[in-house]
Amino acid sequence: MRKFVLGAALALTLGAGTAFAAEAPKPPAQAWSFNGVFGTFDRAALRRGLQVYTEVCAACHSLGLVYYRHLQSIGFSEEEIKAVAREFEVEDGPNDDGEMFTRPAKPTDPFASPFPNDQAARAANAGAFPPDLSVMTKARKGGEDYLHAVLVGYRDEAPAGVEVMEGLFFNEYFPGHQIAMPPPLADDAVEYADGTKATVQQMSMDVTTFLAWAAEPTMEDRKRLGIKTLLFLLVLTAMLYALKRKVWSDVH
Amino acid sequence: MTSPTWNNPVVKWIEYRLPVFSFTQEHLIDYPTPKNLNYWWNFGSLAGITLTIMIVTGIVLAMHYTPHVDYAFESVERIMRDVNYGWLIRYVHMNGGSMFFAVVYIHIFRGLYYGSYKAPREMLWIIGIIILLTMMATAFLGYVLPWGQMSFWAATVITNMFSAFPLIGEPIVSWLWGGFSVDNPTLNRFFSLHYLLPFVIFGLVFVHLWALHVHHSNNPLGIDTKGPQDILPFHPYYTIKDLFGLGVFMLVFLGFVFFAPNFFVEPDNYIKANPMQTPTHIVPEWYLTPFYAILRAITFDIWFIPAKLIGVMAMFGSVLILVLVPWLDTSKVRSARYRPIYKQVYWFFVIDCIVLGWVGFNSPDAMFMGAVSFLRIGQVATAYYFLHLLVVMPVLGKLERPRSPPESISAAVTKETDTVTEAA
Ligand code: HEM
Q1: Are B259 and A229 an interchain contact pair (Cβ–Cβ within 8 Å)?
Q2: Which one, out of A33, A49, B23, B365, has a CA that is 20 to 30 A from the CA of B140?
Q3: CA–CA separation, B265 vs B247, rounded Å?
Q4: What is the Cα–Cα distance from A137 to A231, expressed in whole angstroms?
Q5: A232 in reach of chain B (CB within 8 A)
Q6: Which residues contact residue B396 at a Cβ distance below 8 angstroms, ignoring those fewer than 6 apart?
């Protein structure tokens, strides 16, 4: 429903003769560590990205398809995973008295959601719903490039002639340019444990790397197995071709 | 090819009661095959292998999948994350669908080029079209299962199509849904049918091959085999050729699976279905876009028949009409090699189908290079599709003067060798 209202509002603003089309520009391609056939997730960026997620994005966005235990596959020790999980509170129960209670999260829990339900999420965000981020990089055209572009794509001033609606923010890359998410990142919003300078650019790249991992934690396995399989298949096919030539050599 | 005898007593015992060994010998080993088949003849066996891959991966997926609106999306993601090699099984099944259609479309266009549908192979061709229809139904049902935005809205759009039929339309739609909208009952029955139909296809393929083995394969020259000098036993000649083809095919297939697994996917299908929010444009998978383009090309009522109904009929008609191709093509010559004009209009038809596929991806109102709407392009391409099949093919068969095909396959092969020797 909100989308319709936004669309209608946008159509009106467009009618006012602005140069800004509803179609957002193509997000620029970034040099991700996980690009290409041999690309892997930069482990330091993943750790920083997790930090940005827990300290900033987790206030509004859930990550419900990812479990804390999954962090093991990117080099977190059991102790570290427990420490990450402990930062979050989850509801559990009922206990023997039939009461629900909250407790710190455990490695076997999925990432805890900031809101008990969708309505609460909307209520806290002026009617807009902060979507779950678990498969976000796969769920948008442009993937990681788009995510990064949106996170750094805020402008303090909308271009002349564009009326930004109350409670929305101008964003160059969000379709329709008016996004309900307030600019989530500001310089030094987090203090990185590894001493990296927390610029908006840096945090955005890091959290996007983390979300790319969250969307497909098996990507590295996939590529590793893929290279082996295709090399094997290439040799096998070449041999089959030689055999085919041999078998057919007596046919005229 | 003497009829084989077996000495092993167990084999003999079985063979006497159920002749599987002589059957295998006859149909897989000695089976007479024209010696001049080119690589376009590989796609039949590739289709069979792909069907098998789809069934095997599908059965494993079904062990972990939950057909419920609240869990379907999550259960698919669990397969991707927590099931051992679940990501591999899912990506093979997902890309396998696209590969299956690519292979079968090539297989069909091979038949159209070399006139493989002509007497005495009409039944073979008709069964093929029924296979194609069943494949489309299976693919559509499967696409709904992950319960993403595209799943939900494709299900809504396609089932709504049936409401175009007067009187019975609305009841049919709610009967298909099992309710008053696409919901849990719909998902449940779609899962059930998606599991069933591949086995129906399997049975149809069996009949398809039965018909094939009555009159054997056509060949690039489109002439009948005249004797032992024209044929080769299937094994080892075509087993090895098919195996090599399989190697090349798997390189492409697994290339997508491992390095571009989401190439064919709409990003919207990674958003969980939301009945309250319509995606900006709803598109089917690439292999169904040509038919989607035909469905949407009809925007005008004809006489008292509403546009929507004509669109639906045009869409189903565009597949069903292929059943008539053996009779719409009036030429006596099978292979396009000896039909100078058909050879050219054939390629127009191929391009026309590709254009339809491309139009199906775009919103009808969108403009191509700011000049002409996709709706208009789709209408022209749809008209040409039917024009080719209903007018060009029958008329051309009568008017065209084909070149005369060679006497026999071996004569043609010897002649080619002669020319090569002369040239040398
Ligand atoms: C599940 C899908 C299908 C499978 C597994 C399959 C399998 C096969 C196989 C193994 C052959 C023999 C090898 C060859 O000639 O390529 C064959 C032949 C043939 N198929 Fe299919 N097929 C399928 C779908 C279709 C469809 C949709 C059509 C189109 C109408 C079709 C039309 C034909 C024709 C006309 C032949 C004889 C070809 C010739 O000898 O020239 N098939 N099929």
Answers
A1: no
A2: B365
A3: 25
A4: 29
A5: no
A6: B330, B331, B341, B342, B345
Alpha-carbon distance of B402 to B407, in angstroms, equals 15
Matching CATH number, A8-66+110-217, of 1.10.760.10, 1.10.1740.10, 3.30.420.10, 1.10.10.10: 1.10.760.10
Q: Any catalytic annotation for residue B422?
A: no
A188-221 confidence digits (pLDDT tens): 999 999 999 999 999 999 999 999 999 999 999 9
B217 lines ligand 1 (CB under 6 A): yes
CA of B400 to the centre of ligand 1 (A): 28
CA distance A187 to chain B (A): 31
Report the gap between the CA of A20 and the closest CA in chain B (Å).
17
ipTM value:
0.91
Nearest C-alpha in B relative to A250? B237
DSSP assignment string, B28-93: IIS-EEETT--GGGGHHHHHHHHHHHHHHHHHHHHHH---STTTHHHHHHHHHHTSTTHHHHHHHH
- State whether the beta carbon of B124 lies less than 6 angstroms from ligand 1: yes
If you count DSSP H runs as helices and E runs as strands, how many of each does chain A have, helices first? 7, 4
Residue with tokens 């923010």: A169
Give the mean pLDDT of chain B. 95
Amino acid at A65: L
Tokens of B222: 């489109």
Out of B232, B248, B258, closest to residue A225 by CB: B258
B277-329 tens-digit pLDDT = 999 889 999 999 999 999 999 999 988 899 999 999 999 999 999 999 999 99
Residue nearest ligand 1's atom 2 by CA = B47
B110-127 pLDDT, tens digit per residue, is 999 999 999 999 999 999
Which mutation among B212, B318, B409 tests ligand 1's pocket best, with the greatest number of atoms within 8 A of CB? B212
State the nearest Cα–Cα gap between B418 and chain A, in angstroms: 12
CB contact under 8 A, A134 and B77: yes
As a whole number, mean pLDDT of residues B188-212 equals 98
Nearest in space to A237 (alpha carbons), one of B246, B256, B42: B246
For residue range B243-272, what is the model confidence (pLDDT) as tens digits?
999 999 999 999 999 999 999 999 999 999
- What pLDDT sits at residue B105? 98
Domain ranges, ordered by start, for chain A: 8-66+110-217, 218-252
Closest of B150, B128, B60, B139 to residue B98, by C-alpha: B139
The whole-angstrom separation of Cα B312 and Cα B68 is 30
* DSSP conformational letter for B317: H
Could you tell me the pLDDT band of residue B354, with boundaries at 50, 70 and 90?
very high
